[in-house]
Amino acid sequence: MRGSTRFDRVLFLLNQKNEQWEKSKTFGRVVNVSSVEFYNAANAGLRVEMQFEIYRRLYKNAEKVIYDGSVYSIIRTRKTKNDKLLLICEFLVVDQELLNEVM
After folding, report:
1. pLDDT of residue 87
2. For the domain that residue 82 is a member of, what is the CATH number?
């Protein structure tokens, strides 16, 4: 995984509970999408646009991630080394209503 090794990006993890979105702020890092990950997702009809690495204990089965004003759906996760988790994400159409509700 290339890119910065510092967890210096602000991410908001979203979970929907009782028709309300719960937001938790965390720090992570952006990880480049590998060609293998990209093509595996494409074969499943998905489009991997971003990957974020966070500490596993902070995940809490989030459904979406807000990063830099955009909303991403978490397609799947993968454990990495040292108690970290990779969030493999697909870009959603900018959902201004969701952004207004949670931000």
Report:
1. 96
2. 2.40.10
73 Cβ partners below 8 Å, 6+ apart? 63, 64, 89, 90, 92
Domain total in the chain:
1
Q: Is the dihedral of CA 90, 28, 58, 71 positive or negative?
A: negative
Q: Is residue 81 part of a domain?
A: yes
**Residue 82, domain extent:** 9-96
Residue 30 lies in a domain: yes
Global pTM value: 0.83
Is residue 22 in a domain?
yes
The tens digit of pLDDT for each residue in 36-62 reads 777 777 777 778 889 999 999 999 999
- Would you list the DSSP string of 30-58? EEPPPHHHHHHHHHTT----EEEEEEGGG
CA 3 from chain center: how many Å?
16
Query: Could you tell me if residue 33 is inside a domain?
Result: yes
8 A C-beta contact, residue 31 and residue 3: yes
Band the pLDDT of 4: cuts 50, 70, 90.
low
